[in-house]
Amino acid sequence: MPGTDTPVIGIIGNHHLINDQYEVQAVGRMNIEAVRDVCAAIPVILPADPDLMSVEQALAVCDGFVFPGGRPNVHPSEYGHEETPAHGTFDRPRDALSLALIREAVARGVPVLGLCRGFQEIAVAFGSTLHPEIRDIPGRLNHRMPPDGSIEEKFALRHWVTLTPGGPFARLFGATEVHTNTLHGQGIEEAGPRVVVDGRAPDGTAEAIHIEGAPGFAMAVQWHPEYRAAEDPVSRPLFEAFGAAARAGRLARAA
Which of 28, 80, 189, 199 has the fewest CB atoms inside 10 Å of its own CB, making it the most exposed? Predict the structure, then answer.
């Protein structure tokens, strides 16, 4: 049974249609298992729609938040760009809920962890712009998910990420290089004033960020560490540190 010190971690959902008719809010099982098993926390799926849940309600219930990946992209109007076909599909309710929740959670010191789209949400929430298709920039790699193959092949480790020596990610992983998967099309174009790029792919693409001056855990990665998080030597310490931060916050509030 979970103890009173067991943190509750909200995982932001994604809008889906079953049979093109029935609306659902869904979260990948990988994310749920990573929170349950590696964070040692209670995972709760949060609807990514301000009409269904407010920022204050989310903060009243949860000790930390995971902003996971998702097919739709952050709408370019959120960072001052015009919409183009290259930007793909959108989930405007998730934009509205997530960006506001990120800003408020960070301000209050409530831990936030961004994964893939969540990485881009945290970046945009603090003033970054995004490029709609990283692979179109000369000299950049194709970071997108392989179109064919098994889940194991799609989430296979594909490139190294070089971390800032002495930075929070290097301290967390105990290394200045880590091997990661890559399943994204967009990426940071220009980082916001508080967005510290702490890790980059071999082509210079931003892969790990943290928020300068945040009073709590505020970190994000462009890859998908939720895949086999309990086994992966990079994923495990990331989720463990996030879970520990959520647990410490819960205990501090209880005291």
Answer: 80
